[in-house]
Amino acid sequence: MSSSSLTDGKIIVTGGAGFIGSAIVWALNQRGIENILVSDYLDKSQKFKNLTALRFDDYIEADVLLNKINNQASSLDDIKYVFHLGACSSTTELDARYLIQNNYEYTKSISNWTLNHTNARFIYASSAATYGDGTNGMIDSEEIIDDLRPLNMYAYSKQLFDLYAKKNRFLNKIVGIKYFNIFGPNEYHKDDMRSVVNKAFHQIKSNGSVQLFKSYNSEYNDGEQMRDFLYVKDAVNMTLYLAEEANANGLYNLGSGDARTWKDLVIPIFETVGMKTNIEFIDMPESLKLKYQYYTCANISKIKKLGYKCEITPLNNAVSDYVKNYLMKDKYLDV
């Protein structure tokens, strides 16, 4: 099967005013593509600012889009790609009914419409959070989906759709992306869900120091708990590659493939702003202790085997770019 092109027709990006969604629109604009329908819920979070510098054909609220989909509106007949990134991404959200409706039912509706009423390519955001504590591995394989045990309701709402797609035998016709720890510009609106780079920069700017959680696992020293960090510019590049590669199907981990410590993440911030490293280790909330992941690392052999060869931005360079060119200037992604 040959690869397709993002210039072939119209593109829907749900969650298009959000962090990764707006970065997708930005990356499309970088390629000269503007034939985009952006959809989101523009609430009071000021995330509309992510869109002001971007170029696209139209904007539509998510509930209006769903109504058009349910009524098979002819205005959507020429859609060729659907990037479904819209979701409540808060790992601390406790309203299970809301998460089911927003993350699971909506995804079912838009995926069924895409598969049954269009010839469009469907790319959706699953989540690395579905792996839970990692006991059953972090391999982007359909075979292990049933064995995963998510640790919070957000992750479970994502897991439910992965299971639904597998049970209904169309996971091999779509692309599900398990983003690991993504950071970068256009996340200002995310409040407590902002990356540690964003939060740490503002702590350093205000106090000259940054706070990290102590370790409660004897195998890891304070600040040496490990995560797979990936710059958002790399994340969207990988996402667009999967969209255009017709042989891509099923689930894909998107990360750097290299686990790094929290210290590794924050030290370049001090270096970029020209300050001495000053890290304070604080107690972890009791509510997190039993759910805390001490190690995550994306196995990205699947996307590499598919043919993805672009170099992933080294962590130091990615943090420096984010801090110097966006956080210090209070800038958004701009074309």
Provide structural commentary.
The protein is built from 10 helices and 12 strands. By secondary structure, it is α/β, with parallel strands linked by helices. It has a domain at 10-184 and 228-257 and 296-312: NAD(P)-binding Rossmann-like Domain (Rossmann fold, 3-Layer(aba) Sandwich), CATH 3.40.50. β1, α1 and β2 (36-40) form a beta-alpha-beta unit. α1 packs across α6, α3 (96-117) runs parallel beside α4 and α7 crosses α10. The longest helix has 22 residues, at 96-117.
Offer a few descriptive terms.
335 residues; alpha/beta; Rossmann fold; 7-stranded parallel beta sheet; 3-stranded mixed beta sheet; 12 strands; 16% strand; globular
In the sheet with the most strands, the strands line up as: 3-2-1-4-5-6-10
Computed structural class: alpha/beta
The tally of strands reads 12
Anisotropy-based shape: globular
Query: What is the architecture of the domain at 10-184 and 228-257 and 296-312 at the second tier of CATH?
Result: 3-Layer(aba) Sandwich
Averaged pLDDT: 94
Low-pLDDT parts are none
Largest sheet: 7 strands, parallel
CATH fold field value of the domain at 10-184 and 228-257 and 296-312: Rossmann fold
Percent range for β-strand residues: 15-25%
* Number of DSSP helical runs: 10
- H and E string: EHEEHEHEHEEHEEHEEHEHHH
Radius of gyration (CA) equals 19 Å
Per CATH, the superfamily of the domain at 10-184 and 228-257 and 296-312 is NAD(P)-binding Rossmann-like Domain
Distance between the termini: 33 Å
The level 1 CATH classification of the domain at 10-184 and 228-257 and 296-312 is: Alpha Beta
Helix content: 25-40%
